[in-house]
Each structure stands twice: as C-alpha cells, then as structure tokens.
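Subject: Protein record for review, amino acid sequence with backbone structure tokens
Why sent: The fold of this protein is of interest and is recorded here as tokens.
Enclosed: The protein record, placed directly beneath this head.
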Amino acid sequence: MDDSPKPDAPDAFPAVDMRVGRVTEVQPFPEARSPAWKIAVDFGVLGHRWTSAQVTHYSAEELIGRTVVGAINLGRKRIAGFTSEFLLLGAVGTSGEVRLLRPDDGADPGDPIA
C-alpha cells in the first residue's frame, strides 16, 4: 500500500488555470519529432498564446475557429526551437489519438474552467 501523502484534490484543482480559448492560426511544425501543429489560441483579455500539439488527425481547417480548453499557467516549454506557452487539453484514447476538449456554445475566450 502506498502511504505517501496525496494532495487534497479540491485544494489542488484551482492551482491549474484552465481557460476557454478559440484557435486563430495553425501552422505546420516539421521540426517536431512526432507529427504536430503550431497552434495560436485567443484567450480573450489574456491575449493570444502559442502551443505545439500532436493533434494532426485534425486538419488546420477543422481547428481554425474551434473553441478549446487550455492550461495556461504551467510555464513555457521549448520544443524543437519553438516556445509552447500553454497546454492544450484533450482526452487520450486507447489508440493514442488526442480528442480536444471543447466547451459548450456560449463559452467565451478567457472564461475560466471550474
């Protein structure tokens, strides 16, 4: 049995700042080791941020204008010379494909996820 201390989930959840965003730009990312896109997302008053995501089963056209959920306070990460500024959230299926999370209609860029 693992007796190590566990964070209290209700207290830890607010530490991750998750926000609604809208994809505004998608660029190829041929330098990445695994197929990926460079994706710009508008987070409303929080501004635009870029990320790299291995979601190439979505076309660029499918992604542009799509609402998404991003964790925006996890720090920056350098990936093949590109700075990823947030984590795009999705569900990972048994095949390994990431299905992006999407809020219902009416959620606006910058809205916090609760």
About this structure: The chain has one domain: 16-100.
